[in-house]
Amino acid sequence: MEAKKLLPLISFFLILLVRKTNAQSLGDPVVSITFGSGSSTHSGALPADSGSTSYTYSSANFPSDGSYTIENTTAGAGNVWWSATDHTGNTGGYMMVVNASVSKTDYFYKRAITGLCSNTTYQFSAWVVNLLRSNDISPPNITFAIEKTDGTIIQSFNTGTIARTSNNYQWVQESFNFTLPAGVGDVVIKMINNSAGGAPANDLAIDDIVFRPYGPVIEASFSTSSSANTASACSDVPQTYTLNTTIPSGYTVLWQYKNGSGAWTDLTGANSTSSSYQITSPSVAGTYYYRAVTAQAGNINSALCRSASNVLTLTVGAPPQSTATANTPVCAGTTLTLSASTGVSYQWTGPNGFTSAIQSPTIDNVTAAAAGTYTVTVKSSSGCEVTATVPVVVNAQPVAAVDAVEPICEGSSVTLNASGGSTYSWLPATGLSDASIANPVASPTDNTLYTVTVSNGTCTSTATVQVDVIKKPMANAGPNRYITQGQSTTLNGSTKGTNVSYYWTPTDNLSSSLELTPTAAPMEDITYTLHVVSNSGCGDEATDQVFVRVYKKVVIPNTFTPNGDGVNDTWAIEALNTYPTSTTQVFNRYGGLLFKSTGYPEAWDGRSNGQGIPSGTYYYVIDLKNGNVMSGWVMVVY
């Protein structure tokens, strides 16, 4: 084979080798086309500053043959295409979707780039996806061409067949490198379909087109070791670092830095052939990045001609904004609590040999020896430190005392006497003449435990005194009682008061006059009096009375003879007339009422409605209205 025919093939394999091994360094993108993003499905036709195309714009989700669209999803294409989205996964990110022409293989994308450096190597890359999800009679096959402005091809690269995937769509990055000839700084990027379109055939999407310098490998580090890619410092303690790299023959190095997500900025005096550069860590906390960019001599000042090294990261931490606090002044015998804020480690020192490595240490039962200045060194997560101090005052503890008092009678008062401090506060305040003095007058109504808090201005202590109240005697003889002659009842007496004695008068017919609940069995109505006396001499004797009503015993005869002979002519019921509210009723055997009386003022003479009743047996019900109801029979005999 002729040598001139071998050159394109050799060039292709060299490009492929570089593309696969990525053995050199890339610079910042000269062109980066993402097609933007938005909330609507389509963004409109390809903007002029993003390139041009020989295809016709369509706003449909599924453009026809020979058409293209800019959209963020192909979900509207039904089952013909995969539901593809932007390559980077950006929300709403757009991509260029191309439906190849049936016969036309002209370019579907073209972009001019100016201001490049001749004799400089660049890399072109783009992400491509085969959209077809079923049959694909003519898969995408693209030629990427780099041309001079007059159309002369500088370098081209063919992707080969971009095969259809069976499970889901898959973005593929295609890239190649080329070197501009001497005197050439303006080029045209062109993408050409090598496969015809049709149904279904050669339907693709393209995204993230990038064009950037591609130079020799240079490794940067914070020392002579290439592995030292990170360093740290504190904003309040400047550190000096030496940035190192290798410089390829014939190239110049320029050092750059940026803060966070800012833009890369050239370092002053960093444009030289020296392989090292010295920096001082910034005094403002943040993350700083450094790198070396390289280009052939004379091109170093053009961002379109430089490739870059790996990025070095310098993390500058701020000292923690920590303060030391304490519950000062603190009283002797209590707990001293120290505290520091904002840190990951702590180291305390203080009086009397105190040390601690926790954030909030405590000293229990503190003494005067703990007074003085405490110092804490706080370290942040970035390793930066700050020192804070807090003075601590320990005050003496007052000793509260209060005199004991004797019990008082109900309604009386007693003076309380406390000592040990300059101010006093009593609880409860109920019954006190003044709860804020040392010697208030106490007039409680019940037994009360008083607590006094004594203060010397900063510290307090407490003492207590019990005031017992001797209650005056009170008597309660209980409710009145009602019995029938011959019965007995229990008196329900009760007392109130402290240390009292009691007795009943009179003692007649009582089981005991010294019991609160004696049994009483009087034969006549009687009033009993309960006497209660204080054995402590508090209050006068208390009395209360209970009345016992004794009803007479009712004797009911079962026969009388109302024949007018003057003997046993009436139903004479003994003592029934002593029950003035009682009711007496007599019924015949059929339940007919024959006689009714209230109180029984006159004995029944055997008549009903003025007529004498026949001899016979009759039935009675007598309700004494005291809870006793008697019933039975009485015989009337003539």
Automatic annotation (TrEMBL):
Domain of life: Bacteria
Pfam family, one: CHU_C
InterPro entries assigned to the protein according to its UniProt record, in alphabetical order: Ig-like_fold, PKD_dom_sf, T9SS_type_B
Signal sequence range: 1-23
Keyword set, alphabetical order: Signal
NCBIfam families: Bac_Flav_CTERM (TIGR04131)
Official protein name in the record: Gliding motility-associated C-terminal domain-containing protein
